[in-house]
Amino acid sequence: MRQQWADYRVFWREFRRTFESTGAVLPSGPAVAAALARYVREGENHSGGRRILEVGPGTGAVTGHIVRAMRDGDQLELVERNDEFVARLRERLQNDDALRPSAKRIVLHHAGVEELPEDRPYDVIVSGLPLNNFSVAFVEQLVGKLSRLLAPGGTLSFFEYIAVRRAKAALSRQAERDRLCGIARVLGELLDAHEIRRDRVLANVPPAWVHHVRW
Fold it and tell me: Could you read off the pLDDT of 17-47 as tens digits, one per residue?
């Protein structure tokens, strides 16, 4: 519980300071985290283990679920650009009983996902990035980058809050409505072509969709 409150304090502070890239008041709840880790838990075995990437882990709310679902030989990489979140993740990798035993199998990149090399693709990618907060151009670039980082037959899982984009659009000025409609178009094209499963998570504040796609 002490660790959870420490995560909440860090997350709330960064939400107020960098809302655009943080995107939520609190870390992902356990139900969303479990759904995001579904294909770490249920995915196929790979000879020599799987390469797993978490994009935007924040304080590690989803990371713990990923680690518990990992199998022998699996390797996890975390990519996070926020300085405070990186510091918190490093602390947890050293001191948190949930992460420390697996720390030797975890690599933390203090960077943006766009900086990752594409020569060694990942079998599972889990993204916690707040897509509805970004520009349409960045979301398009991000989708393209993730598709290139994902190995053939691999799975990308990401979430968005149910109806939040529609509600924001209804209350916004035209420029913001245009941006949100553009994001809806980009994600709609992705999901129409590549979504393999969608989990509705009502036990979260706010409720969320967790999307799973394969190219």
Answer: 554 544 454 567 899 999 999 999 998 888 8
* Residue count of the chain: 215
Long-range interactions of 87-91: CB distance < 8 A, separation 24+ = 88/6, 88/7, 88/10, 88/59, 88/60, 89/57, 89/59, 89/60, 89/63
For the residues 94-106, what does the mean pLDDT come to? 96
* pTM, two decimal places: 0.87
What contacts 201, CB < 8 A, 6 or more positions away? 29, 31, 32, 35, 159, 207, 208, 209, 210
Q: At what angle do helices 83-95 and 2-17 cross, to 10 degrees?
A: 170
CA distance 183 to 56: 19
Give the whole-angstrom CA distance, residue 181 versus residue 136.
9
Are 43 and 114 in contact by the 8 Å Cβ rule? The answer is: no
CA atoms within 13 A on the CB side of 174: 0
Convert the pLDDT of each residue in 153-194 to its tens digit: 999 999 999 988 888 878 889 999 999 999 999 999 999 999
| Strand 122-127, strand 150-161: pairing | parallel
d(CA 65, CA 63): 5
